[in-house]
Design goal:
globular, alpha+beta, two-stranded antiparallel ribbon, about 130 residues, three-stranded antiparallel beta sheet
Length: about 130
Amino acid sequence: MTALAEPASGLRTEYPFTLPRGYVDEHGVVHRDGVMRLATARDEITTQADPRAKQNPAYLTVLLLARTVTTLGSVAEVDHFVVENLFASDLAFLQDLYRRINADGHTEVGVNCPHCGQDFTVDVAGDAPGGS
């Protein structure tokens, strides 16, 4: 997947990703590549007010991801049903991505090669190759 172009303002609002396993639709098609956008205050407020999140606070994650994952393969609409049917590892991946882009503002982490000791960054969204 190619990186999305930054708007003229320089603010990056969309982040491509590749799921570790992928969403399997009703036809058995696996969808791994997608895009997540930055969350807005409205996303946070409306999902917290949702009765499903009030009844089960863990469901807040499902609602937030359904609002912020804008594309996933050729799935017509990423809704709560799609998010509910992700594998646990993919849900954890998207939760971490959500936290990284909304709290940290990027998807890169600094790492250190255990063999040569060189420091470099890796894009943990899965859409860019690492290097050393």
